[in-house]
Write a structure and sequence with these properties.
- The protein has 340 residues and is of the alpha/beta class.
- The chain folds into 4 domains: 79 residues, Translation Initiation Factor IF3 (2-Layer Sandwich), CATH 3.30.110; 93 residues, Alpha-beta prism (UDP-n-acetylglucosamine1-carboxyvinyl-transferase, Chain); 90 residues, 2-Layer Sandwich (Dihydrodipicolinate Reductase, domain 2); 65 residues, Ribosomal Protein S8, Chain: A, domain 1.
- Helix content is 34%, strand content 27%.
- The chain has 8 helices and 16 strands.
- Strands 1-2-4-3 form a 4-stranded mixed β-sheet, with helices on one face. A 4-stranded mixed β-sheet has the order 5-6-8-7, with helices on one face.
- The longest helix has 17 residues.
Length: 340
């Protein structure tokens, strides 16, 4: 059994999700101690429990010690059974992060599956569903995966209530190289809000206009959602390149002004635009698992985060393959399987 100290590396929930996915794919059981040991509130949260229970449901797995707040638990995989599944996080916990746990095992299964996930779709601790659908899934499709994702209803923190539907048709993943993102084709800034004053979104976009003055007026849009889906607010900055898309998000929360939220997001986007990297930090985190399971390939990214380095370590424990980042002359980092 593989034993993992959940306080090592970035010390968060990504360790739990990747371990469950890799266990189902490789058939190796594991035990985690000190789960989320570096978080302000360590131990499993509701969304992590849902992800583990969902992994047990699709994979005929058994687990011990899984409960909200638990620090130690074990997971023994069975055989992945494709089919139709519905999982509700029960809070604003991220549906996208539950999907991250289930997607690779179901992509490598022997029949199609359909997932309905209910909970949070837009919260500050996970990439929004637009990011998953526009930045991450298209790369999977280039690798041969067939994934269709639909955002049925938004779910903001703390209310939740969102819903996504995912159709997955299995197939072998082919290694690809995502080194060059190509020319910039289009940019956009969209402020979504529900059950909040209109001027919140307008103030966010005004700040982005000031910090990204080269973006055209047509790139800016406000989208008001039904009040029953709120209160909530998210700012989405999108840059579409010839070979990929980057989305930077900012989530409204109490105590953070619209201007401060937009300033942080605009500066992150400006920084990415000045690089030559294919993937931003969040996309790099998500690409490591499918690239490793495809058996190769490469992509360029910005300076690797602690999340990414921790993901590399978990992948190596289950597969024996170690991924590494090598800085290139243009400042990008090339992610690929380490030789030797």
């Amino acid at each position: 059994m593989i034993t993992i100290d959940g306080s090592e590396g970035e010390g968060g929930g990504q360790v739990v999700r990747n371990a469950c996915a890799l266990s189902l794919v490789t058939g190796q059981p594991f035990r985690i101690t000190n789960a989320r040991g570096k978080r302000e509130k360590p131990g499993l949260m509701r969304q992590h429990v849902t992800a583990i229970e969902a992994a047990c449901a699709i994979g005929g797995a058994t687990c011990e010690g899984v409960a909200v707040g638990a620090a130690n638990f074990s997971f023994t995989p069975g055989k992945v059974v494709p089919g139709e599944y519905r999982f509700a996080v029960g809070t604003a916990g991220s549906t996208g992060l539950v999907l991250q746990t289930l997607l690779m095992p179901l992509l490598l299964a022997d029949a199609p599956s359909r997932l309905v996930l209910e909970g949070g779709t837009h919260n500050m601790l996970a990439p929004p569903l637009e990011f998953v659908a526009k930045a991450f899934v298209p790369v999977l499709r280039r690798m041969g995966a067939q994934v269709d994702l639909r955002l049925v209803r938004h779910g903001f923190y703390p209310r939740g209530g969102g819903r996504i539907e995912v159709d997955i048709r299995p197939g072998a993943l082919t290694p690809i190289d995502c080194v060059d993102r190509g020319d910039l084709r289009a940019v956009s800034a969209t402020a979504l809000f529900a059950a909040l004053p209109d001027n919140v979104a307008e103030r966010e976009l005004a700040t982005v206009r000031r910090l990204l003055p080269e973006w055209p007026d047509a790139a800016f849009a406000v989208r008001q959602l039904p009040d029953e889906q709120g209160p909530g607010n998210v700012l989405l900055l999108e840059a579409e390149f010839e070979h990929g898309i980057e989305i930077v998000s900012g989530f409204g929360k109490l105590g953070v002004s619209a201007e401060a939220l937009a300033k942080t997001a605009a500066r992150r986007m400006a920084g990415f635009l000045t690089s030559d990297a294919f993937a931003g930090p969040y996309l790099a985190d998500q690409l490591l698992l499918p690239f490793a399971l495809a058996g190769g390939g490469s992509f360029t990214t910005v300076k690797p985060s602690q999340h990414a380095l921790t993901a590399c370590d978990i992948i190596a424990r289950f597969t024996g393959r170690r991924w590494a980042f090598e800085q290139q002359p243009n400042g990008c980092h090339l992610a690929q399987e380490a030789i030797g």
